[in-house]
Structure formats: structure tokens, C-alpha cells
Amino acid sequence: MSIKQKAVRGVVWSAIQNWGSQAGTLIIFFILARLLTPEDFGLVALANVFLAFMRLFLEQGFGQAIIQRRDLEPEHLNTAFWINLTIGSVVALVGFSVSGLVANAFEQPALTPILQCFSVLFVISALGQVQQSILERKFEYKTIAARWLVATFAGGAAGITMAFLGYGVWSLVAQQIVYEVLGTLTLWIFSDWRPGLSVSVRHFRDLFGVGMHIMGFNYLSFLNTKANDFLVGYFFSPAALGYYSVAYRVLNVMTQLLVKTSRDVALPTFSRLQDDPERFRRAFYTATQLTSAIAMPTFLGMAVLSPELVRVLFGEQWLPSVPLMQVLTLMGILRSITFFKGSVFIAMGKPAWWFWLSALNAVLNLTGFAIAYRWGIFAVASAAVIRSYLVFPIGQWAISKLIKEGLGKYLRVFISPLMSALIMAAAILAIKQALIGWLSPLALVAVCTAFGAVVYLSLIRLVAPQLFEQVIDIARIVMSKPKPQS
User: Fold this and answer.
1) H-helix or E-strand containing 416?
2) Is 64 a member of any domain?
3) What confidence tens digit (pLDDT) does each residue in 167-204 have?
4) Which of 292, 361, 381, 403 has the fewest CB atoms within 10 Å distance of its CB?
């Protein structure tokens, strides 16, 4: 099977994983949002900030280094596994010990037992990291999809059951623990690799040479994605953090569904093509253009229909999240273009570039919060969006240098999808205003979505017919029967 066929099939199974698990997550989230309070979600959001920060110490970048290496030896895998497990155990002990101090810092005593329970997850996560990387390197996305689907629905069932029984915030805690435990257990059931005892300093150096920059990126990425949760939780109320976290949760779920599906397969694909610049460039263009052609109209349509979507999916109590959700859709549009840059930097042996770009992101993110927080949550969200657009041209210039293509020529491939999506959004707004007094929120969302899809597809067919040709080619690969490997 060719690299292209493996990549396309990998995207299909990654889509099944992401769309299935995220659809399940959204349904579970909608149910829990009606059973629990914003304060419950705010408490768990605070706990997840701590969890995400401590999890950084587990991320040595070994997973990406395993995927990227041409000559992978058993000692690389063994070394990565035992180091990850040792670090996971130490981080779990530290997390359990400092949980009370963290809760006191936020003046939320109820956080202490939540943080203590979450500390166990560090060991569980460490047990599955190498297994996950091996499967991704082999393009075994069918197995990965099974892992996350099983974990998502089992965790959701546990959370909903406990919420109905009146356990409040502990419903969210149980959901997350069941999710992680079953996810790791499924990896070990489906994978035939088991760790050995052959560990060496040389193999550690091989992995750490790539991993140290990725590890640095992970620390900086935390500042870009989780620091605002921490700061909002510190300067504002748990309810405000609940509204903010819901808006960001929707953005992240949509990113998972529309963009991350392809990015998961991008690193192993790009790594195989790192010595073939022309094929690398074509693969990168195809990935970014196709994902942006889907993501741009979706995010703009969501911005127009956010009030109705929140009413239908979450209930009236979550309406303060609407303006946050609308401004964050602008970040979603940008993500559809930039979400592959990390895979390009790693595959081309330039993880340091990714690190320094993330350092700039972190500085601008903290600066933006320091300026904006006095004007409230909406200003904080707006500052995050502005920061993303300020960094965008620098990151794209670096990508252009690596793929040896002019920035202007690369950006021109997004003009047709973006203009078509903007016209579609205007059309949805017009029909929404005409029908808003006649239809229920659910019916209005359905009618506007169908109308917008017809408008957008008609425009794309008219101004960018080559996109249809690419989709047809991919569909042929998906539908064709894979040849047995000799």
C-alpha cells in the first residue's frame, strides 16, 4: 500500500475516532450540562488546569520522536517506556501531595479530593504513551479509533449515571477517570508490543535530541491554551470560568472534528516524505486546503447561529457563553490553516522552530491577558484571537521556507474557500433574520444549516472545481479494497 493510500485510510479511521468520540462527548456534555451547574464545570475546569500543567512533565516528546525516526530500534521503545513510567509515578506522588496547597491558592477547598483522584491519571497515561506512538507510526488508526470510542462512551455512561444519582461534580471526575483507564487498557489489549529491560543512554539521547524541543513546546503550549483558564479562575468567579471553558470546549471539539482528524495522520505521513520535497509539498497543500475548505464555513456558520445552538444544546443558563463562542470561531478559522505546522517542523527535523514560535505565542498571550482582563471575559477571549492573528504570518513564513514555496502562492489556495464561506455566512444571517420569529431554535438551526450548505457547495463548485476532483480521488481510495500486504 502506498503512502498516499495509508494516509487516506488513516484519515478515515482518524475521522471515525474523532467524529465518533467527539459526537459522543458532545451528547454526553449536553446531558451533563443540564444536570449539573456552571460551578461544577468551573471546579473541574480548575482541576484540569492543574492536571494539564502536571501532565507536561510526562511529555518528553518521545512519542513524536518515535514516529519521526527512520531507524527505530527496540531499545528506543524500552527506554521511552520506562522513563515515561518513572516520571509518571513521581508526578502522581507530587500531585497528590500538593493538592491541598493548590486548592487553598484558589480558595476552593472542594478541589483537594478532586486533585488527589486526578493524580492517579499520570501513571495511567504514562503506561499508554509508547503504545500509542507505535500504532501511529504503523498507521494503525483503526485500533486507535476503537480505543477512544470505547473510552468515550464508557466514561460518559459513568458520568451520566452518577449525575442522575446526585453526585454533582464527582460525576465529571468519574467520567474522566473511566475514560483514561479504559483508553490505556484498550491500547494494551490491541497492541502486541511489550516493554523489555534493554535501556541505554545512547537511545535516550537519540530520542531526547528531538524530544527536548517538543517538550519545550508543550510547556509553552500550556501557557497558550491553559494559562487563560488559570488566570480567569484566579481573577474571576468559578461561574465565569464555567462560561469561558464551555466556549473554549466547543472550539476545541470543533477543531478535533474538522482539523485534528487530518493532523493526527500528518506527522507519520510527512515523516515518510521528508526526503522528497515535491511530494511533501503536495501532501501539505492537500491536507491544509481540504481541511480549511470544511472548517471555514463550519466556524463562520457556527458564529451566526451560536445563540440558537446554545439554547438548543446547553439551555438558557449558558447564554453568557454566546459572545465568547462567536469571537473564538475566528480562532477556529485560523487553526484550519495553521494546525499542521507542528507536524511539518518535526517531520523536517526543525522542532526548535516550533519551540521558538510557541515562545512568541506565550509572551503575546500573557501580555494580551494582562491588558484585557480588566474589561472582562469577552476582552480576554478577544485578546487570544488577536494574538493568534499576530503570530500567524511569522509561522507561515517559516513553513514557506521549509517547503520552499512563496508565502503568497501558498495563501492563495485559501482565497476561494474563505470568500465562499463569508458569502455563505451572510446568506445564513439573512435567512435567520427572516425566519427567527417563525421557527423554533432547533428548526431554525436545521433550516439555516441546510441552506448554508447548499450555498457554500454551489459556490465552491463554481470557483474551485479542483477541490471536487481531490475529494473524488480520495473517495476512490477510501472505497477501494486494500490489497493484502506480502
Assistant:
1) helix 415-435
2) yes
3) 888 888 888 899 889 888 888 888 788 888 877 777 77
4) 403
